[in-house]
Specification:
The complex is a heterodimer. Chain A is an alpha+beta fold. Chain A is built from 10 helices and 18 strands. Chain A folds into 2 domains: 241 residues, P-loop containing nucleotide triphosphate hydrolases (Rossmann fold), CATH 3.40.50; 125 residues, Coagulation Factor XIII, Chain A, domain 1. In chain A, the strands form 4 sheets. A 6-stranded mixed β-sheet of chain A has the order 5-6-7-3-8-9, sandwiched between helices. Chain B has a two-stranded antiparallel sheet with strand order 1-2. Classes of the chains: A alpha+beta, B mainly alpha.
Chain lengths: 406, 267
């Protein structure tokens, strides 16, 4: 009875033209024959209801249908089938500064953007000073300058400041928190929390699970357009994360014939184990990682070592570490590496390793053996932007007051 | 709980948005120009001078159907620019606003109506120049001038109607954008813009011609309101054009209404 947002089995179909067939057709055929399309369901049979005051986090991989769902909910596009029932004033923020015109001044753009987002002129005038103040001191000086002269930071801050003063019943947000510098992010998140504490309903799409965990009481997990799970945030996030961890983390070969490798060495077993703390389900930046490697050595009396590389998902090598060379005989060889906690930053990483003879001759390179992800973990923070860098060390970095005089 | 209005917008908010989009287009038009609003009158005056040059030097005509050549040409151009500019900007409006349409919901029709703002401002400045010309050529401004707002309104109706159709179809197939300049370019010559319909009023196909091209009746209605004693077409002939223009307006808005929900999937 109390539901403010009620979504009943909505689906959205797109038609993708079959491009390769099209080319062979003549012009006449193209005009007169019906083109062939491949159907693609961006969102399929999605249902959920929200009560007044619910904060919904929407998560899922790229292409899971998050953005399409938001577009349907904000009435930008219609679902192919199904029904959406929303009671109350909706404001959707799918980007910051929608409709800003580069040639117009900051002042004009506040009115323009406000009107586009559904504010009346009176509302904007009433809140004008507040908006400008929220956007920061810098903006005041440039209020009558065309926004094309603004820095990208100022542009985004002004856009967010307007959005933050919309005062709708239901707010639909797509990753706008990921904007601006750390200071402004803190301010935006504070504003979001302030909004959240008021009896507002929020639908929030984000890749930042920490922010979802902090802001949302309910979470919708989409996968390939379908609802994978909808429920309490803690439960959904745990399932989502443990599913994500289920990547290629263990490889085991019982028979030497079909094991990867060559006539010199073949892989028998490789496993990456995060050392979890307490009832943790997935590895985050705190955890150390253990990598076990076993291989069949088909050569006698060789001086061998293992050289292991960890790559970022972008392809850069983060580091290379090797075992000591050792005189080894035919049979099974084993090695274990432990990467300490608070070493790798959150992100996606790839592991490759090679067996090297006499410190110089590569016998075989086992490429991309593991592909793993490390989640973020933060305590006592109000900032949820991406932590920069590939490493996340906790060095001793003391700070103290040495004097009270200036 | 109380059943709140599901729509974000009420009529006054819609009107405010329309006005602010119109204001945006107008102020952007003259941003970073040295001459500003003067550009609004340079175009019609240049067009008139070009035809004046051709008529005077090539054919040695100094009046058309008994009216000063400058007055006939300029009043025609005034009409044509209002029609062509608003038709073109309405046709392009949806594609040009794709960044808005894909990011935020508001009634899409607002975009169509706000697109005519610049043409109206241009028309206003062009009209001031006409008053100067009329004074110079001693053309009386009669009480028929009261019909001018009606003529302008009907012209905007047909522009929006045609524009809405082109805007709706060009979202899916950009081919329609190629047709617009053809209409604007050749329509200029097949409509009595730089001549009057008196020149072929007696032709047997004239009735058919006014039916096919409602702009004929409209431009003559324009001249009727601007030039004292100008009375080439009969009331019924003008009424037919007015009626077809309104019909096109209604059809255009219907087409737009049924197409608007699919725009975002093709932008």
């Amino acid at each position: 009875m109390n539901s403010i947002v009620s979504v009943s089995s909505i689906s959205k179909k797109y038609q993708l033209p079959l491009s390769n067939k099209e080319v062979s057709k003549s012009l006449v055929n193209r005009i007169f024959s019906k083109r062939e399309f491949e159907e693609y369901w961006a969102v399929k049979d999605v249902s959920f209801t929200l009560n007044k005051g619910d904060k919904l986090g929407i998560i899922g991989n790229n292409g899971a249908g998050k953005s399409t769902l938001l577009k349907i909910l904000s009435k930008i596009t219609k679902p192919t089938t199904g029904k959406v029932d929303i009671r109350g004033k909706v404001a959707s923020l799918l980007e910051v500064g929608t409709g800003f015109h580069p040639e117009l001044s900051g002042r004009d753009n506040i009115y323009l953007n406000g009107a586009i987002l559904g504010m009346s002129k009176k509302q904007i005038t009433q809140q004008f000073d507040e908006i400008v103040e929220f956007a920061g001191d810098q903006i005041i000086k440039f209020l009558d300058t065309p926004v094309k002269r603004y820095s990208s930071g100022m542009y985004v801050r002004l856009g967010f400041a307007i959005s933050a003063h919309l005062d709708p019943d239901i707010l639909i947000v797509d990753e706008v928190l990921a904007v601006g510098d750390a200071d402004f992010q803190k301010k935006s998140l504070g504003k979001m929390k302030e909004v959240a504490s008021k009896e507002k309903t929020i639908l929030f799409v984000s890749h930042n699970l920490t922010a979802v965990a902090n802001l949302c009481n309910k979470t919708l997990h989409l996968e390939k357009g379908y609802v994978k799970q909808f429920g309490e945030t803690g439960e959904v996030l745990n399932n989502y994360l443990s599913a994500m961890q289920n990547n290629l983390l263990e490889q085991s070969f019982n028979h030497i014939e079909n094991a990867p490798g060559n006539d010199l060495v073949r892989l028998k077993y490789a496993k990456l184990t995060p050392v979890l703390i307490g009832n943790q389900l997935i590895a985050d930046v705190r955890n150390s990682l253990k990598i076990d490697i076993e291989f069949w050595n088909l050569l006698d009396d060789q001086n061998l070592n293992i050289s292991l590389h960890i790559f970022a998902s972008t392809g850069e090598c983060i580091f290379n570490v090797g075992t000591q060379p050792k005189l080894l005989n035919k049979g099974v060889v084993q090695a274990t590496l432990t990467i300490p906690g608070y070493f790798l930053n959150d992100g996606n990483y790839l592991v490759s390793f090679m067996i090297v003879k006499d410190k110089s001759i590569v016998l075989f390179n086992f490429e991309e053996v593991f592909n793993f992800e490390i989640a973020d973990f933060r305590e006592d923070t109000t900032w949820y932007g991406k932590w920069p860098g590939y490493v996340r060390p906790q060095f001793d970095f003391p700070i103290q007051q040495v004097s009270q005089k200036i | 709980m109380a059943f709140l209005n599901t729509s974000n917008f009420n009529f006054s908010n819609n009107l405010e948005l329309l006005l602010i989009l119109a204001k945006r287009d107008i102020s952007v038009r003259f941003k970073q120009t040295a001459l500003g609003m003067i550009w609004a009158i340079i175009r019609p005056i240049t067009t008139m001078l070009v035809f004046l040059f051709a008529y005077k030097n090539v054919t040695n005509i100094s009046n058309i159907s008994g009216y000063p050549i400058q007055i006939v040409i300029y009043s025609g151009i005034l009409f044509w620019n209002l029609f062509a500019n608003s038709f073109q900007s309405v046709s392009n409006s949806i594609l040009l606003s794709s960044n808005l349409i894909t990011k935020v919901y508001f009634p899409r029709m607002i975009i169509l109506f706000s697109a005519i703002a610049v043409s109206i401002v241009d028309f206003f400045f062009g009209f001031l120049v006409y008053l100067i010309l009329a004074f110079y050529f001693k053309i009386d401004i009669s009480h028929n001038l009261f019909f001018l707002p009606v003529a302008v309104l009907i012209t905007l109706f047909i522009s929006i109607g045609l524009g809405a159709i082109f805007a709706s179809f060009s979202v899916r197939k950009r081919d329609f954008l190629q047709i617009i300049p053809i209409i604007v370019q050749y329509g200029f010559f097949v409509t009595p813009i730089v001549y009057t319909s008196l020149e072929f009023y007696s032709k047997p196909w004239f009735k058919m011609y006014t039916l096919i091209n409602p702009l004929v009746g409209l431009v003559e209605f324009f001249r009727f309101s601007l030039i004292s004693g100008y009375n080439i077409l009969s009331l019924s002939e003008i009424l037919i054009s007015i009626f077809s223009s309104i019909l096109i307006f209604v059809i255009g808005l219907f087409v737009f209404h049924f197409k608007k929900d699919t725009f975002v999937d093709y932008l």
